[in-house]
Amino acid sequence: MPLTPFWLTDAQIEAISGWFPKSHGKARLDDRQILSGIVFVFRENLMWGQAPAEYGGELALRRRFTQWCQSGVMDNALGHLFEQDGDGQLRLVVTTAMLMRHRSGAHAIARGYLPTFAPIDEMEAA
Question: Structure pTM?
Fold first, then answer.
């Protein structure tokens, strides 16, 4: 069964656009395209190379995820990306559980790059 690609909405991108670094003369892939691909990888628990090419390719997704984690952009962006569930309630687009089941997401959390997404057992111990 083919997966349906995930694309962030205009409203979602508008809500987080202030955290993205500005491009300094060098053309780069669109932040919406890349972040949508990163979200898709985590939601579907895919390896980076399994993401559809329309997101920019494995290297672009992995590189931007790493850069954004190290700069704090990823934590801010993912921590402020919401969608409505079937009952009209807001929920995070990417959850701690989604990140923890993915090798790169779990690694980023363990290194402290995604403090918004501390594992539940760590939050309960505090």
Answer: 0.88
